[in-house]
Amino acid sequence: MKEYDDWSLFCVEVEATEAGLKHVDEIVDAIYQYLHLVQQDQIAPWVFDETQSIALMNFRFRSKETPINYATSLATRMQLYPVQHIVAGSSLLYTYNPVQVESILSQLTPRRMRLTVVAKDFEGKATDVEPWYGTLYAESALPPSLIQRWESPARTEALFCPHPNAFIPHNFDLVTTPTPGKVPVLLRDDAAARLWVKTDTTFLKPKLNICLALHSPLIYQSPTSVVLTDLLVRAIKDQLTEYTYDAELAGMRYSLSFTATALELYGGGYSDKLPVLVQLIVANMVHFNMTDDETFHRLKDKTKRSYDNFERDDPYKHALYFSSCLLEDTKWMVAEKAAAIAHVTRADLMEHAAALFRELFVEAYYHGNVDAATATTLLDDALATIGARPVFPSQRVKTRAVELASPVEYVYAIPELNVESVNSGLYTCFQLGRESMHLRATNEVFAQLLREPCFNQLRTLEQLGYIVFSSSHRAHGIEYFRMIVQSDVASPAY
């Protein structure tokens, strides 16, 4: 929903593949089939009750805002709500009004629609020029036959109204610990797993964070294994959409990614239901199966395009990337991954997934509304679901960084990959040594002191470009201080 002073837009965005772009009309068919379904079946009162419950829960347990943002938002709401609703009026739902709902649904019609399709394929066909940024576009009226088709869409069994959300939490009790500590406690460290736990005694909210790192030597063995791991993560997330949408509505969130050493699963949300979500994700990861060639090729195409589009990234991102390639012990190049993905098959992906989950070492961290006994049980449940043999300590991948000699200066200069870009990127980093609490704190203070004068000199006074910043940085246990500049008026030599 996009809201303006006196009008609003209800927006539906669909990301299409190259094949999907050939079926735009059918995609719009599906949108109006669902809207028609909702209009016919009407919204059941329990849907409102569920949404109201989620809104109240999120309002009760939301995180604190910065004072200036909170004061500004309150001042804005004073213009919109009566006094008794200024604090919560924008967050809570009060009374179900089916007449208003029906009124809004009745306005979501093809004759009130603006359909926008954006694709590279329209290059050369778009001839009109937008006056502010010079963007090329083409505009035309929709055929009356299409509008009539969308006004009376056929019903399909593939679409259905929402079901009750099983992830909505009900237990908001806080756990207590007899010996609260300030740092995480190591509860387990053996051949199969390592477990860290920190019971929250600061924020006192019924929320929990769960981090699971599944270490495997197969993740980063070669460019092909990296590509297969990338595809595996994308495929798992694609399959999880059916479940995680409800979880996100109920205040849960998750991320699944990978590094050179491990698959990393993070879950955050309410402690009553988050373990259910994490266990579901782990089960889907371990029992991964893909029988659909069409889905595989869709994900493969999307992954390949992400590699191909690397050259179109900003120059400063290229500088960051090549710096990491130079400083890290093992890092496969994007060009190598782009070449490898051309040859992988669905069978390769299935074989890689089975081998990857056959032997693992799991490192877990539980923080928030959880005690030691519960965290231990949750990890045991996850390990039982995974069912993997332990990885030998000698097999665990250890990432290393290249040590830079001092006081030697190293310069790596390459032409910008995107020949159409007028910008140059410069990344300067200073290797400070092995990470420690003292060095980390010192570097943070130093970075804070330099942040404003660096920006003022390079951005405000010299006006080198819009992207100018300095910060502390750490990678693979090594502490750095770095400065980044992207400019269209000066070369890196400047």
TrEMBL record:
GO terms for molecular function: metal ion binding; metalloendopeptidase activity. Residues 446-493 form the Coenzyme PQQ synthesis protein F-like C-terminal lobe domain. This is Peptidase M16 middle/third domain-containing protein. GO terms for biological process: peptide catabolic process; proteolysis involved in protein catabolic process. GO terms for cellular component: cytosol; mitochondrion. Belongs to the peptidase M16 family. Residues 59-340 form the Peptidase M16 middle/third domain. Keywords: Hydrolase, Metal-binding, Metalloprotease, Protease, Zinc. InterPro entries: Metalloenz_LuxS/M16, Peptidase_M16, Peptidase_M16_M, PqqF-like_C_4.
